[in-house]
Design brief:
- This is Putative spermidine/putrescine transport system permease protein.
- It is found in: Cell inner membrane; Cell membrane.
- It is a multi-pass membrane protein.
- Keywords: Cell inner membrane, Cell membrane, Membrane, Transmembrane, Transmembrane helix, Transport.
- The protein starts with a helix and ends with a helix.
- It is built from 13 helices and no strands.
- With 280 residues, the protein is mainly alpha-helical.
- Helices cover 79% and strands 0% of the residues.
- The protein folds into two domains: 46 residues, no CATH class; 220 residues, MetI-like (MetI-like fold), CATH 1.10.3720.
- It is globular.
């Protein structure tokens, strides 16, 4: 009987088979695209064959020296981390106010927070870049960070608001009766409870910032461009340089994004941090 039940549990419905087949095809397709880009970045000539005619590492050397990928990677990490810190530092208190307080114009504020997420970045990116250049903040690291905070801050606020709403108000009331003020409640009482949402929002903002192109492109300069802007610059000049250099930058971009995400998930683990806070 146990064997029969095990065989029945392994049996899948036609819908499940179709779903898994679709997922498998999608994963194979995406993997094939990534492998093709990686192989092309090391290839010499690749025309109508399964593999390139030869392999070489000169495209990587040329790309690294021509585009200064070392400094570009450093700028990308600095911008991403600064955007995450600013967005979380401002977004969590703002989410608390929206979740716990009623004030005139609350719906208008919520609508304004949605606009940077609903409107294409290029539509407000051009006037934003113009304003930053007028203030002397365009073309440098400060302008790039501020431009990327515009869509990231509302993202954190809207992500954190449901997390705040699901916490019982009586927890805060109990803390207030013991003399805790709002800042102390946010840090010591709600902080550990909101930690999973904060970490989830931070990781998503991190990946979003690394992939954000329009706002960074409009506000960056020669020493403040991120990796995605360098990739666009290589692609736009593909007619005067080999396509393999573009593939090499694409591989660096994919690897840096994956590694940055893995590091964030490895060292910022919600379960481990919550356990550590409880133990303390």
């Amino acid at each position: 009987m146990t064997a029969i039940r095990a065989r029945r549990s392994l049996a899948l419905s036609p819908t499940a088979w179709i779903t898994w087949a679709g997922v498998t095809v999608f994963l194979v397709f995406v993997t094939a695209l990534i492998v093709a880009v990686v192989v092309s970045s090391f290839g010499t000539v690749w025309l109508g064959t399964w593999l390139p005619a030869g392999f070489t590492g000169k495209w990587w050397e040329q790309t690294w020296s021509e585009f200064g990928l070392g400094s570009t990677l450093l700028v990308t990490m600095e911008v991403a981390l600064l955007v995450v810190v600013i967005s979380v530092a401002l977004g969590v208190p703002a989410a608390y106010v929206l979740a716990r307080r009623n004030f005139p114009g609350k719906r208008v504020v919520s609508l304004l927070l949605l606009l940077p997420l609903l409107v294409p970045p290029i539509t407000y990116g051009i006037p934003l870049a113009t304003l930053l250049y007028q203030w002397g903040l365009g073309g440098n690291m400060t302008g790039v960070v501020l431009a990327n905070v515009v869509p990231s801050l509302p993202f954190v606020v809207l992500t954190m608001t449901p997390f705040v709403e699901q916490i019982d108000r009586r927890v805060e009331d109990a803390a207030r009766t013991l003399g805790a003020g709002t800042p102390r409640i946010l840090v010591s009482v709600l902080g550990p409870l909101l930690l999973p949402g904060i970490l989830a929002g931070a990781v998503m903002v991190l990946v979003r910032t690394v992939g954000m192109f329009e706002l960074t492109f409009l506000t960056s300069g020669a020493d403040s461009q991120t990796l995605v802007v360098a990739l666009y610059a290589a692609k736009s000049g593909a007619g005067i340089r080999a396509d393999q250099t573009v593939d090499a930058i694409a591989v660096v971009y994919m690897l840096s994004t994956v590694l940055l995400l893995l590091v964030a998930l490895r060292f910022v683990n919600p379960t481990q941090l919550i356990t550590r806070v409880k133990d303390d």
